[in-house]
Design goal:
CATH superfamily of the largest domain: P-loop containing nucleotide triphosphate hydrolases
CATH architecture of the largest domain: 3-Layer(aba) Sandwich
Structural class: alpha/beta
Shape: elongated
Radius of gyration: 31 Å
Number of strands: 26
Number of helices: 14
CATH class of the largest domain: Alpha Beta
Strand order of the largest sheet: 2-3-1-4-5-6
Largest sheet: 6 strands, mixed
Length: 595
């Protein structure tokens, strides 16, 4: 017998009473996978209680489940074919136990979704299909059950296939197969049915063996959430061991690692395992400990990453797709806790972009997310955390939300708001910045000035450029190293790949402003005072420039006020011959620069 077969997690979901547990019970019975005497034990129990025997009782181990005829918790059983071994998860279908269903589905590699041929597609059938899509389960086989009740009708089967295929396509799921079955009678479960000559496809057992195994994520970027840090003092043992479970990737002794969000770096000195020989490498799925060549402060919730691989995202605002299962609605202003990996951080709902009706996939604007609803939201965290976008690395892109002492929701991280993306680029830029042989401090001493940016704006008709040029000449005459950079100089050069001219596209505008600010950042790193001009700069533009440049920006409006203008550091009359002197005095008084 092959003892090296791989395991596969399979979850079975569907509306209550559609026959999920019966499918699994029948598979176990028909393939001889039941423990010795289990079938007889359940049949005797049914006889004593004057209840008809059901194969579902082989899975439903809890007393109240047998009494109510529904699955409440996740029933786990083990099943073997000639190809592989399975861990079968029978998830509850009742809407009140949706949390349990999600728990069971979160680690599955494939799913069987059961629909009653007689009742047809129900609300939970749609909800479960959407959640499987949201959890990233790509292999889904739909079992149209209880064909015996409808006389093994091909038309009924085709009707269910048509309706549910259209829904799943809208949810982004392409079913691996549709299989007509009768779990109670054993049709097309382990043996092909003689009652449905019109069906020539595979059985459920054959479909299980046809599912593709997920490749171990050893080749993905290394991720290990830090669970704890241990230090042993007995017998002179000075090791500090950082413990955690490897989520993905491979780590070897000698690899450089960085801990996010702090950004602290060190090198792996050893890989430790309790009461076992030391390893030189560790891969995904292993719970392990590592020691460092350079001792740095690391804490629970940090994310360990290899320095030569793609870094995670670090942000305090995240865009998510979530499902809410709490008895109270997810509401703005209320404090919750978000948990991802080993990190736990206070959070609040910033805004709800839309709430999705998981049955119809219709979107609606709502200020709250009620129980059993799915929504796209922006969450604000009280401190930054490190994670991956779910589409890049699913293991470190999932989260749950705790309300009080209850896990009340969860979902996947789909992105970060625009300003957070800019901040990520700035962090990455600073980390990768190639420093020259002359430091900025040395340049400041040579030039006798503190480099910073003066942003001059105004209405389209304002003479901001004249003011900027006069300011440049005045500063230069006073011995300052200064450079005037109008946005037009960037539009037709650095920005040549972006549509120029006035655009209503906010993303386009943001990219123009970002590149202008990044160009100014290079000039300030060279020690220069930089004067920028652009028309009708708004609050979002200023915020974006401050994100790129830090605190090195002084904003000025020339001429009359215009719509959507931010609060400026200074406003000047464009006809004022002494505007440049006014700007210099104001900058001095605000200690923005050392003139």
């Amino acid at each position: 017998m092959d003892t090296c077969k791989k395991d596969m997690n399979i979850v079975i979901v569907g509306h209550v009473d559609h026959g999920k547990s019966t499918v699994i019970g029948r598979l176990l019975a028909d393939t001889g996978s039941l423990p010795q005497g289990k079938l007889e034990q359940i049949k005797e129990m049914c006889r004593r209680n004057s209840k008809p025997f059901e194969y579902a009782f082989l899975l439903d181990a809890l007393k109240d489940e047998r009494a109510q005829g529904i699955t409440i918790d996740i029933a786990r059983c083990f099943f073997r074919t000639e190809k592989r071994e399975y861990i079968i998860l029978d998830a509850p279908g009742h809407i009140e136990f949706l949390k349990n269903m999600i728990t069971g589905a979160s680690r599955a590699e494939a799913a069987l979704l059961v629909i009653d041929a007689h009742e047809g597609v129900r609300e939970n059938s749609r909800r479960h299909g959407y959640i499987l899509s949201m959890l990233g389960i790509k292999q889904v086989s739909v079992l149209v059950n209880k064909l015996d009740i409808v006389g093994y009708s091909e038309d009924v089967f085709n009707s269910v296939v048509k309706e549910y295929s259209e829904f799943l396509a809208a949810a982004g799921v392409t079913p691996t197969s549709f299989i007509p079955v009768s779990a109670a009678m054993g049709d097309n479960i382990a043996v092909r049915s003689e009652n449905m000559p019109w069906y020539s496809g595979i059985t459920v057992l054959e479909q299980l063996d046809a599912f593709n195994e997920e490749l171990p994520p050893d080749d993905l970027p290394f991720r290990m959430p830090v669970q704890d840090v241990y230090k042993f003092t007995s017998s002179g043992d000075e090791r500090r061991i950082i413990a955690g479970t490897v989520e993905s990737g491979t780590l070897r002794v000698g690899d450089g690692i960085m801990f996010y969000p702090s950004g602290k770096k060190t090198t792996v000195a050893s890989i430790e395992e309790f009461n076992r020989p030391r390893r030189t490498a560790v891969t995904s799925g292993y719970s392990t400990g590592i020691t460092m060549t350079e001792q740095i402060y690391v804490r629970r919730g940090d994310l360990a990453v290899k320095t030569d691989e793609k870094p995670p995202v670090t942000a305090s605002r995240i865009e998510v797709s979530l499902f809410w299962l709490g008895k109270d609605a997810l509401s703005e202003g209320k404090r919750y806790y978000l948990k991802t990996g080993s990190a736990k951080v206070p959070m609040r709902l910033e805004k709800t972009e839309y709430v999705l009706n998981a049955s119809s996939l219709e979107k609606a604007a709502k200020p709250k997310v009620e129980k059993n609803e799915v929504a796209k939201c922006t969450l604000t965290l009280e401190r930054p955390i490190s994670f991956d976008i779910s589409s890049d690395l699913s293991g470190t892109g999932r989260f749950v939300i705790v309300d009080g002492y209850e896990i009340s929701g969860g979902g996947i991280i789909t992105g970060v708001p625009g300003d957070e993306k800019i901040r990520q680029n700035v962090l990455r830029r600073n980390f990768r910045w190639e420093k020259g042989g002359v430091s900025l401090t040395e340049r400041m001493e040579r030039f006798g000035q503190k480099p910073f940016v003066i942003m001059i704006t105004g209405s389209k008709n304002s003479d901001r450029k004249t003011v900027a040029r006069e300011l440049e000449k005045s500063l230069f005459a006073n011995g300052r190293s200064v450079y005037y950079l109008g946005i037009g100089n960037v539009l037709y050069g650095v920005d040549a790949d972006i549509k120029t001219g006035r655009s209503e596209d906010r993303d386009e505008r943001d990219e123009h402003i970002r590149r202008l600010a990044e160009t100014a950042n290079i000039l300030t790193d060279a020690g220069l005072i930089v004067i920028l001009t652009a028309s009708e700069i708004d609050e979002d533009d200023v915020y974006l420039m401050q994100t790129v440049l830090g605190e090195k920006i002084f904003t000025i409006r020339v001429g009359n006020a215009y719509d959507k203008e931010p609060a400026f550091d200074l406003s000047v009359d464009e006809n004022d011959e002494k505007a440049a002197e006014t700007i210099i005095r104001s900058a001095e008084s605000m200690r923005t620069a050392e003139f």
